[in-house]
Structure formats: structure tokens, C-alpha cells
């Protein structure tokens, strides 16, 4: 039977983000201001009461600041006894007079501290929690938790089994829409729960040896299309996201979009063996009495009440199961295997278009297939590398915790480029008598299915509706299937020529991948990348020097690129034995590389090409 689970997480954040400036009305900063602490606590009580009124239990993420507040502690204990709420510990909400006095800093993002300070802060916060409650928490979290932090917590405090560990697509797009001031960059992680590897939080563990020991959940359930195309902070199941995005009826203050997101997450059960998940992680800062952004307090309050009422309604109908984080971690461990992927065929629920994206995530990759571009892969993260990416003061990445991409159409142009050069994308071109058509221009729809592989694992198959391609004196109908074989680190793309107006015609099929690496819009140094065509021990290679060179090999068994900077090897192979494999070097204005195969294909022919990811030591 399908199961839809929600985690509702509240935190008594005594000094909420933004709220001190609002409450202080231009006075000199004072994070101990009585009005600030009182209002924050009142909001937390309102949130708890609203959830309980709708028959929902919560996970209470006690902040460091709240551990010095007797009323916050009393509420947590009482709600735990009365409603079964879990008392957990947040690594957000660090700022308070005691914290600033000890650490002499205004930093509050746990992942940005030095590893020495991370450990010291964790010990302080966990120790204070134990002194008050007499036990260590089973759940914790932040906007992001790097692997070193997670590993330390699990080793030192083994009771922890669940953590909020990343915020989906909180990268350059969100940074730009926060006036270039919100230095939280962690694109490239899963959008739904996963078991993080010990090496990198974003990359799911492939087996018990890689298992960090916790179940991770994302900070907020985002709109997997609107959030990808635009700023994630405007599109999610946090009511403030919907208000910030102005996606509500300004006259009636109704929120149909919020319910549509929740319902679309419910629908993901059909792609994930009947399991669907949603979460809401809500601090008090956005509900202050002075209002927030464009919204008055009355609207903020109503949005929260309406959201909780919808979850309550679903629970009464028997289609929703509210769990604490610790309960969910136990369920997830029982329900999911390491290699089982997370799949989401997501449709546009905001703009009224027919656009679809398919998201796929497993221990080897995260991929996005754009159905509106003929099934092109427009985002690809090589988790197979399990890239060790230390974050915080004293590391190479003080703020940027993103998992690097090989393909990312928003930061590296995709198919639709402005000028010379190429953007990153995995697609195909068809050529006939000098005319060329790229499948990125062929909008279509997709259908999801599964096929048993005989070993307890399955193939996840995305079948696209056929597209009609018209040349000057030839038309053909082509169908694409994108196939993910569980546990394989492969993406198979199958093209079938269903019919041609001239059955004797020959058309050139060019399967290609334009790629690079990085975490932002800005280019990285491509020197050190090696491009290779291989056949029966014969190799033709290019060491990247921005010289526009190309190598090709008839009947190549593979074409590949090794990218030492992200310890990744990406390769392609095909079942079309006569196909010509090629590799192409970019240039400074277009710092990409291209892997591909080209071959003549005929009516009714079926050709498959595989893209493979692996770690390059």
C-alpha cells in the first residue's frame, strides 16, 4: 500500500534570522533583547499548537539558544509527553549571548567553521542538551552538514540516526536572488531522503562500508521544476516560500500552489515503490509580528494554519502518516536498499506549461532529463567519485559545499547558447543531406516504467513519446528511451527509428555529450583533463590545452574523459559496432569537452549508447 510520510520540524530559535533588526527598530544590535526572545517563543508555541490542533506530531529541534530558556525547555518536555513529539537538537540557532561570548564570532552556519570549532561547538551543544534532558538526541540538522561534521557526530554521539543535511539547489541561483549576500552554496544534492556516504554528504552510500550511519533528509521539499529553473527559496512546502514567490491569491489569501506541491510529492510514490515523502522545517523568524517581505503578520499566520490544516486533512483521510525524524529514519532503513534510486517525473504546476523533468538519484549519479528538450540530460553530478570536499574555514571551500557537475544547463548554457561555442548537454543530432536537427528542439512527453533485472534489482525506464523530424525531402519518426539499470552507474539511451518517408534512406545519428566541471557559472581550469578514444588496445588521446583539437576512431569501443580535479572518469560506448567514436577539445571562450559517436542509421533500426561514471584515482 502506498505510504505518504511527512516530517514536521519546529525549532525554538530564540534569535531568529532577520528578526533582531525588525524587532529592534533600528536600535543598536542586542540579541538578548527581551522583546525578541518573547516574540520568538510565542511564535514557536503558535506553531506547535497549530500542528497539534490538526492531529500532527512534530520534531522539536532545540537550538543552542533555547537550551538557556526555561520556558522553551518546559514546552518541549510537555509536548513530548502529551503528543509524542521528538525532542531533537538543531545546529541552527547558535547565535546567543553565551555563544558569541565563547566563540567571539557572528558566524552561525556550522559547516563554515573550522573543523576544530565544529567539534567544539558540537560537544558544547550536545553536552548542554544532555545536561538538560538526560539523554542525547536521535536527530539533528542544519541547512547543510558536511561529511566531516556528520562523521564526528555519529562517532561521538551514536544515538543520532537522522539529520537535516542539505538544502536542495541552494546555489548560485539562490545567491543571486538574495542580492549576492547569502553565502550558502550547496547545489547538487538529493531532493528526497538518502543515506549519505562517509566521504561526501551529497553522495548516497553504495554499501554498508560507505554508510555514514545516519538517514539524511533535505531542508524543505522543493518544486523540482520551478526551483531548478529559478530561485528555490520561492518554491517549496514552507509557506513562506509560497508567499515570497507571490504564488497566492492576493484577494482571498488562498494557497492552491502549496497544496499542489504537497500533492505532487504524494504522487512520487508511483515511481518509488509506493513510498512518498514530504517535509516542512520551519523556524520562527518569518512569522514575526511586524510582517515579513511583502506579507503582513495576518497573512503569514493564515498560510501556516492552512498548511497544517491540509496535512491534518490528509491524515484524517488515512493517506498521510506523520512521523518524527527518528521514526522516519527507522522506517527508511527498513524500506530502502542502498542501490534503490530515488525517481521523480515532475510536471509544471506553476506556469501552466506541459514541461516535464525527470530526476534520478542513486549512489553513482544525480541526473536530470529534460523531456521538453527531447530527453536531453541537462544536469549530471558524478556521485561515483564520492569526492571528498571539505568545507569551512581552513579548507579550500570556505562556503561552496556544492557537489560538482559535469553537465548543468543553467550555469553552463545547455543547448541554447547565445553566441559561438557550446553549452553542456547530453543529446543527439540527426543529419540528412547537410541538414541537421538536434533533439533538444523536439518537445515531447515521458512515461515511467520498471523492469525486473532478475537479481532483486530493477531497471527504471523513461519512454518518450515519438517525435517527428522533418528534413527538406525526408520525414522520420524517432522514439527515445532513457534507461537506468540499478547499481550499474550507467545511463542507457536507446533511439528507435520507427518509420521513414523513404525506407531506403540513410540518416546520420550523432550521439554526443558536451561537458565540463564546476559548481558555479565561472569556468574552471580544464588543463589536466585527458580525452581518449579506445579500440582493442589502440588509443588516441588529447591532453586538454584549449586548442580545438579532435581525435576519432572507427569502431571505437569507448570514448572517455578523465577529470583529475573532481576524480571522475566519464565514458560513452555504443552497440553500433560501425560507429565512429570521437573526442573534442574546447577553447578558452568555450571551455568544454565533447564525447560522441556518429553512425549511419536506417529505418526500423535501434541504437543504444551508454554513458558511464566512475571514480578516477
Question: Characteristics of this structure?
Answer:
6-stranded antiparallel sheet, alpha+beta, 22% helix, globular, 10-stranded antiparallel sheet, 617 residues, 29 strands
Task: Describe the overall structure.
The protein is globular and about 80 Å long. Strands 16, 17, 18, 19, 20, 22, 23, 25, 26 and 29 form a 10-stranded antiparallel sheet that branches. Strands 15-14-21-28-27-24 form a 6-stranded antiparallel sheet, with no helix packed on it. A hairpin with a 4-residue loop joins strand 25 and strand 26 (568-574). With 617 residues, the chain is of the alpha+beta class. The protein contains 12 helices and 29 strands.
Strand element count: 29
Assembly state here?
single chain
Sequence stretches where pLDDT stays below 50 over 5 or more residues: none
Helix content: 10-25%
User: Can you tell me the overall shape?
Assistant: globular
Report the average pLDDT across residues: 94
Q: How can the largest sheet be summarized?
A: 10 strands, antiparallel
Class per helix and strand makeup = alpha+beta
Q: How large is the share of residues in beta strands?
A: 25-35%
Q: What does the radius of gyration come to?
A: 25 Å
Distance between the first and last residues' Cα: 44 Å
Q: Output the number of helix runs.
A: 12
Amino acid at each position: 500500500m502506498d505510504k505518504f510520510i511527512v516530517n514536521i520540524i519546529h525549532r525554538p530559535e530564540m534569535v531568529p534570522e532577520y528578526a533582531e533588526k525588525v524587532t529592534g527598530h533600528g536600535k543598536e544590535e542586542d540579541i538578548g533583547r527581551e522583546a525578541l526572545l518573547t516574540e520568538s517563543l510565542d511564535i514557536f508555541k503558535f506553531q506547535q499548537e497549530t500542528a497539534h490542533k490538526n492531529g500532527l506530531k512534530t520534531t522539536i529541534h532545540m537550538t543552542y539558544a533555547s537550551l538557556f530558556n526555561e520556558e522553551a525547555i518546559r514546552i518541549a518536555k510537555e509536548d513530548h509527553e502529551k503528543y509524542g513529539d521528538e525532542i531533537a537538537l538543531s545546529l541552527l540557532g547558535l547565535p546567543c549571548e553565551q555563544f558569541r561570548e565563547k566563540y567571539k564570532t557572528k558566524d552561525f552556519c556550522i559547516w563554515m567553521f573550522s573543523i576544530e570549532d565544529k567539534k567544539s561547538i558540537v560537544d558544547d551543544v550536545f553536552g548542554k542538551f544532555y545536561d538538560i534532558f538526560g539523554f542525547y538526541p536521535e536527530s539533528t540538522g542544519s541547512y547543510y552538514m558536511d561529511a566531516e561534521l556528520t562523521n564526528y557526530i555519529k562517532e561521538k554521539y551514536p544515538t543520532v540516526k537522522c539529520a537535516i543535511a542539505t538544502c536542495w539547489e541552494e546555489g548560485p541561483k539562490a545567491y543571486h536572488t538574495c542580492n549576492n549576500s547569502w553565502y550558502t552554496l550547496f547545489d547538487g544534492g538529493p531532493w528526497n531522503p538518502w543515506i549519505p556516504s562517509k566521504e561526501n554528504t551529497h553522495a548516497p552510500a553504495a554499501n554498508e562500508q560507505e554508510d555514514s550511519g545516519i538517514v539524511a533528509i533535505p531542508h524543505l521539499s522543493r518544486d523540482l521544476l520551478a526551483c531548478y529553473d529559478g530561485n528555490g527559496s520561492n518554491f517549496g512546502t514552507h509557506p513562506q516560500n509560497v508567499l515570497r514567490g507571490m504564488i497566492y491569491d492576493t484577494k482571498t489569501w488562498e494557497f492552491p500552489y502549496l497544496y499542489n506541491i504537497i500533492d505532487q510529492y504524494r504522487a512520487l510514490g508511483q515511481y518509488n515503490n509506493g513510498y512518498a515523502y514530504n517535509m516542512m522545517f520551519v523556524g520562527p523568524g518569518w512569522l514575526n509580528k511586524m510582517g515579513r517581505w511583502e506579507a503582513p503578520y495576518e497573512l503569514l499566520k493564515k498560510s501556516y494554519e492552512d498548511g497544517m490544516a491540509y496535512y491534518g486533512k490528509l491524515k484524517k483521510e488515512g493517506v498521510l502518516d506523520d512521523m518524527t525524524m527518528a521514526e522516519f529514519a527507522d522506517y527508511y532503513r527498513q524500506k530502502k536498499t542502498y542501490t534503490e534510486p530515488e525517481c521523480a517525473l515532475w510536471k509544471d504546476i506553476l506556469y501552466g506549461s506541459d514541461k516535464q523533468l525527470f530526476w534520478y538519484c542513486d549512489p553513482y549519479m544525480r541526473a536530470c532529463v529534460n523531456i521538453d528538450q527531447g530527453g536531453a540530460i541537462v544536469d549530471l553530478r558524478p556521485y561515483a567519485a564520492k569526492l571528498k570536499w571539505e568545507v569551512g574555514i581552513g579548507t579550500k571551500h570556505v562556503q561552496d559545499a556544492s557537489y560538482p557537475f559535469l553537465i548543468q544547463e543553467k550555469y553552463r548554457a545547455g543547448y541554447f547558447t547565445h553566441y559561438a561555442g557550446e553549452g553542456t548537454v547530453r543529446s543527439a543530432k540527426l543529419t540528412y543531406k547537410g541538414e541537421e536537427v538536434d533533439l533538444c528542439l523536439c518537445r515531447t512527453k515521458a512515461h515511467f516504467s520498471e523492469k525486473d533485472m532478475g537479481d532483486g534489482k530493477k531497471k527504471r525506464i523513461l519512454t518518450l513519446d515519438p517525435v517527428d523530424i522533418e528534413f527538406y525531402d525526408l520525414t522520420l519518426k524517432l522514439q527515445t528511451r532513457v534507461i537506468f539499470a540499478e547499481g550499474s552507474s550507467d545511463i542507457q539511451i536507446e533511439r528507435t527509428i520507427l518509420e521513414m518517408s523513404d525506407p531506403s534512406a540513410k540518416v546520420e545519428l550523432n550521439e554526443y555529450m558536451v561537458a565540463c566541471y564546476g559548481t558555479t557559472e565561472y569556468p574552471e581550469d580544464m588543463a589536466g583533463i585527458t580525452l581518449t578514444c579506445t579500440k582493442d588496445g589502440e588509443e588516441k588521446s588529447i591532453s586538454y590545452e584549449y586548442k580545438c583539437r579532435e581525435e576519432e576512431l572507427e569502431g571505437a569501443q569507448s570514448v572517455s574523459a578523465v577529470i583529475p580535479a573532481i576524480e571522475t572518469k566519464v565514458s560513452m560506448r555504443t552497440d553500433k559496432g560501425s560507429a565512429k567514436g570521437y573526442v573534442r577539445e574546447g577553447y578558452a571562450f568555450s571551455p568544454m569537452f565533447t564525447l560522441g559517436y556518429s553512425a549511419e542509421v536506417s529505418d526500423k533500426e535501434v541504437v543504444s549508447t551508454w554513458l558511464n561514471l566512475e571514480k578516477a584515482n
